[in-house]
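Today's session is about reading a structure prediction critically. Students often jump straight to the picture, but the first step is always the sequence itself: look for stretches that repeat, for charged clusters, for runs of hydrophobic residues. Only then move on to the predicted structure, which in these notes is written as discrete structure tokens rather than atom positions. Here is the chain we will use throughout the hour.
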Amino acid sequence: MTVRIRSATAEDAPDVARLCWAYRDLLLTRSSEFPDMVEFYYGADSYAALINDLPRIHARPKGDILLATVDSKVIGCAMYYPFEIKGVTEIKRVFVDQTARGTGAGSALLRATMQAAQTDGYTRVVLDTVTTLTEAITLYGRVGFQPCAPDYETNPDFMPHLRFFDHAL
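Below is the predicted structure for this chain, in token form.
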């Protein structure tokens, strides 16, 4: 199984949406003990609006939506865009379809996203996840991300459920 990474095109919007909704479903399943946080960040209506706006949010030349494919089938995604600190980008919505986990697609997506961000002039990348996405936390460590202090303010009740990471480029 050969995983290929490429930038998304307008024609990929349905696949990007499918992966983003699957990511949200995974969060809902894995975060049942803190539903208020998931609803705050991933409420159905606001998330639908966000998905529709992803091409603008992650537009070139300051960001991108990268897709992992196997035999032309889109199996994963990762996105980046400028963070509020100069020279820093944030990676969002790293997700690999359940049928393709263990193929190296997650690592390939992260590495390609970091390479693209570095090419775009970024010197540091940040990301966050929830404590229950243990596979993501393991992946970030394997790729070289280090735990770091929170890089944004949120409801203090949410903080025990969040993990923050960064990586120099």
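Discussion point for the tutorial: The longest strand covers residues 73-82.
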